[in-house]
Design brief:
Elements: E1 3-6, H1 10-21, E2 27-30, E3 43-45, H2 50-55, H3 59-65, E4 73-76, E5 82-86, E6 98-100, H4 101-110, E7 117-119, E8 123-127, E9 130-133, E10 138-140, E11 143-146, E12 164-175, H5 178-181, H6 183-189, E13 193-198, E14 201-207, E15 213-220, H7 226-229, H8 237-247, H9 253-260, E16 267-273, E17 286-288, H10 291-294, H11 302-319, H12 324-353, H13 358-366
Parallel strand pairs: 1-2, 1-11, 2-7, 4-13, 11-17
Antiparallel strand pairs: 3-6, 4-5, 8-9, 9-10, 12-15, 12-16, 13-14, 14-15
Keywords: Cytoplasm, FAD, Flavoprotein, Monooxygenase, NADP, Nucleotide-binding, Oxidoreductase
Cofactor: FAD
EC number: 1.14.13.-
Length: about 375
């Protein structure tokens, strides 16, 4: 029987890998023309997702590319007051290591036979047991797995739910080769994550394995059309940086120095999420995983849940190779419970971030009691 996975993200590839390990064939259909067609974002904090990599037989390879020092964290007030500094000792357990998303994706891709991922296949719709792609081609399936992210097209086969804006807008920036270009700022950010938050805003700087520092400027309790009214001229990077510095007026000059040092890659992102606890009646031939199933605020759970979804669905299918409907029901029952809990936790962290005393509440979250 044919398993078709739409989307070559972490969850879809984890599913394909666990199926491969268990001797089950599957095809992954990805709309991008090649693995390097688009940037894959920054670093990921992989914790519970390590279970999925063990099931995939890739945990040692994961540890080889993971950055233990990425667990370091510094938390500050807008006035520059340092609230928390956690430095990871040499040789500490890799409980929540950071890993470059592109490196992790490449690890999964390289673990699969070459013909498993079908690049350049943009899913259009499904008709009974036939997949139709934007280029007019088609493919048969017995089980269709939607691993096609936040704007999933497969999701509509199971539920009318759609992601909604959660009142957060982010501007992403980057400083390349920061140790050479801005050594003082590099020392300030450190080896892992550097957060300053308050006044309904935050600056999150994250060290990447390739020498970059990615910076996210978060604006909370803002409308979906906030970018249109913010006065940020995204078509003029130099002017955009100046406007962003204005929006952080009154913050410690070290933070605005980070913004000023960024290159011309300035990307606006509106943050959306699916309802916490979303479920649907089980269908015998279609299911979802990852952001297609449970898009959450970006606070560290999404990639882990996607990896677990892929691995656990793969194990359920391996346990019921002749009964896909039973495997899907078993997987969805566990997935709904697990991701609902993760969704509630993510919503709680999001509530902290949007509160007036966000830095103090986050400090209490990281250091309970």
């Amino acid at each position: 029987m044919t398993i078709a996975i739409v989307g070559a993200g972490l969850g879809g590839l984890a599913l394909a890998r666990v199926l491969h390990v268990n001797g089950i064939d599957a095809f992954v259909y990805e709309r991008e023309p090649s693995r390097g067609a688009r940037g894959q974002g920054g670093m990921l904090d992989i914790h519970s997702g390590q279970q999925a990599l063990r099931e995939a037989g890739l945990i040692d390879e994961f540890y080889a590319i993971a950055r233990g020092e990425g667990q370091d964290m510094r938390l500050l007030e807008p006035d520059g007051t340092l609230l928390l500094q956690e430095d990871t000792p040499e040789g500490a357990p890799l409980e929540r290591p950071e890993v470059d998303r592109a490196d992790l994706r490449n690890l999964l891709l390289d673990s699969l036979p070459e013909d498993v991922v079908r690049w350049g296949h943009a899913f259009a719709y499904a008709d009974h047991d036939l997949l139709h792609f934007a280029d007019g081609s088609s493919a048969t399936y017995d089980l269709l797995v939607g691993a096609d992210g936040a704007n999933s097209r497969v999701r509509a086969l199971l539920t009318d739910a759609r992601p909604v804006h959660i009142g957060q807008n982010v501007v992403e920036l980057c400083i390349s080769d920061i140790d050479r270009t801005y050594p003082d700022l590099a020392a300030m950010v450190g080896r892992g994550n550097y957060w300053a938050l308050g006044n309904g805003q935050s600056l999150a700087a994250q060290r990447n394995g390739d020498g970059r520092v990615r910076i996210g400027l978060n604006f909370y309790n803002t409308a979906e059309d906030w970018f249109a009214t913010s006065g940020i001229p995204f078509d003029d990077p130099a002017a955009a940086r100046m406007r962003l510095i204005d929006l952080f007026a009154g913050w410690d000059p070290r933070f605005t120095a980070l913004i000023a040092a960024c290159d011309d890659t300035i990307v606006p992102r509106s943050i959306t999420a699916l309802p916490v606890g979303l479920t649907w009646p089980s269908a015998p031939d279609v299911t979802l995983l990852g952001d297609a199933a449970h898009l959450m605020p970006p606070v560290g759970e999404g990639a882990n849940m996607a990896l677990l979804d892929g691995a656990l669905l793969g194990l359920a299918l391996a346990a019921h190779p002749d009964d896909f409907p039973a495997a899907v029901k078993e997987y969805e029952r566990e997935m709904f419970e697990r991701t609902s809990a993760a969704g509630r936790q993510s919503a709680h962290v999001q509530e902290i971030l949007t509160s007036p005393d966000a830095s103090q509440k986050l400090l209490a979250f990281f250091q309970p009691g």
